[in-house]
Design goal:
The chain is α+β, with helices and mostly antiparallel strands. The chain is built from 13 helices and 16 strands.
Length: about 500
């Protein structure tokens, strides 16, 4: 079939041996699902550097052809910030990032990972699949989000471990007051949607007020289960319309893939119900509390299948491997912050005594610490919770940075500092970056991630984020007008 379809590069996948036997079998299963559900369109998803799901709508036959040929996709997206502004000089050697294949930002070839194929319950006769990006010569695009995490997952496997992660994500659901898109004064990006608060919240974990949001909660619940996400819980948080969703632990790439599908689904389902879902860390609306993304993680021994973080010593809540992993996270915490919290708004969340960390510390069962240990000696489910992340983070970058830092702690056999006491905010420890520009400076001056992720990648990410900072600092804000316009 592929030879008769005008997609991608004929024979590209087999020529460069890009799909494993397991993936090819998954491709055959996806073909059966297409026939079973009369699928007309497949959304082929590429996750960009912001963690945003970019998409081409392909006919079902052309999706099947892409399993052999891939599809062409614009490489120019790599040059764009979150407002679609080009942040790099386009027509220089190596695209400005010392990557020869990026010269001129040519098309990439996207190859679907059929193991991620889903039939969407919120779209008519529509499939969904995540892709990986390659250059025309068959080399992976080194700035591709999934490529970065896959490298670290393989690195863990080489050390004898599977990476295991569970998601705990907070976000807001608001009523949308208008479907009209209004342009900002500069024309683009569009102004924020007009929304109003849902009559729900202000009673943490309350059941009494669920009626105000029950319809959307049930729709989210059913959709996530139907699409195959391992939903664990949905609960109300402090703010009006604020929800927290958790998922059972997943292995390898699966947690990051699930985060993409979850965020995309939540926003589309909410929109179809006249609502707006936002994963912005701290919306500037009345009585809003911050939203975080707490990453639960551990390692699994590939030989025994047992949790490698389970301690067999009564005096430790984590095994030696677990403690070394934590030591790596703390040692690289400051430059790692940019991967966990990549927006200006995220840093409005880190306030003392706010349940969000402000320094690189760890502690047993303490929500004020950066790394919270959950588990007791001999407990099979022992794991750690990284509390730095924001809900809008690129999940592949967030997880990859955690794996890379943790594995470095294991390789170097690091010992973590003493645990924080009752008050992590009073513990003497390195302070986390307090702004996006501080986080950029930390990563720019770091050598570990430049080696783990390549210097070209770090230059790419920090250039993009420095451009974002400069755009922000160049704007006149409402606060400045209120503070200075009349006074001076």
């Amino acid at each position: 079939m592929a030879a008769t379809r005008g997609v991608g590069k004929h024979g590209f996948v087999s020529e460069h041996d890009l799909l494993s036997d397991e993936q090819q079998e998954a491709g055959r299963r996806s073909a059966a699902l297409i026939e079973e559900h009369d699928i007309r369109t497949v959304r082929m998803i590429w996750v960009d550097q912001h963690g945003s799901a970019r998409c081409k709508f392909m006919s079902a036959p052309d999706y099947l052809a892409s399993l052999e040929s891939g599809i062409d996709f614009s490489g120019a997206l790599l040059s764009m910030d979150s407002a679609n502004n080009v942040f790099t000089p386009l027509f220089v050697e190596g695209g400005g990032f010392d990557i020869p294949e990026l010269t001129g930002f040519p098309d990439m070839v996207l190859v679907p990972d059929p193991g991620t194929f889903r039939v969407l319950p919120w779209a008519d006769r529509t499939g969904w699949v995540i892709t990986d990006a390659y250059f025309g010569n068959g080399k992976p695009v080194p700035l591709d989000s999934r490529h970065l995490l896959r490298q670290q997952v393989h690195a863990a496997a080489e050390l004898g471990y599977d990476y295991v992660a569970g998601l705990e994500v907070e976000f807001y659901i608001l009523r949308r007051d208008s479907d009209r898109i209004e342009l900002s004064e500069g024309g683009w990006p569009p102004a924020p949607p007009k929304v109003s608060l849902i009559e729900h919240g202000y009673q943490y974990l309350s059941e009494n007020r669920l009626a105000g949001i029950n319809d959307v909660v049930e729709r989210l619940r059913d959709s996530f289960i139907d699409v195959g996400l391992p939903l664990r819980s949905i609960e109300d948080e402090w703010g009006p319309g604020q929800l927290e969703v958790t998922f059972d632990p997943m292995v390898g790439m699966d947690a990051a893939d699930a985060m993409i599908l979850f965020r995309s689904g939540a926003k589309q389902i909410a929109h179809s119900m006249g609502m707006h879902a936002t994963f912005m860390a701290r919306p500037g609306l009345p009585n809003m509390f911050s939203s975080g993304w707490h990453l639960h993680e551990s390692l699994r021994d590939r030989k025994s299948g047992e949790n490698a973080f389970t301690s067999d010593e009564a005096e430790h809540s984590l095994s030696l491997v677990g403690r070394q992993f934590v030591a790596g996270l703390l040692d690289h915490a400051l430059p790692m912050t940019l991967f966990c919290a990549p927006t200006i708004n995220a840093y409005k969340r880190y306030k003392p005594y706010s349940f969000a960390p402000d320094r690189a510390v760890w502690a047993d069962e303490n929500r004020g610490s950066m790394i919270r240990v959950q588990g007791q000696p001999f407990e099979r489910g022992a794991h750690i919770e990284n509390r730095v992340g924001e809900p809008g983070a690129n999940p592949y970058f967030y997880l990859a940075a955690n794996v890379a830092a943790g594995l470095d702690g294991i390789r170097r056999m690091l010992t973590p500092p003493a645990m924080a006491g009752a008050d992590p905010y009073a513990t003497e420890a390195p302070m986390l970056p307090a702004s996006l520009w501080e986080a950029v400076e930390q990563l720019e001056g770091d050598t570990f991630f430049a080696e783990a992720f390549t210097s070209g990648f770090v230059k790419f990410l920090t250039s993009m984020k420095r451009n974002e900072v400069n755009r922000f600092l160049g704007e006149v804000t409402d606060w400045e007008m209120k503070e200075y316009f009349e006074f001076f």
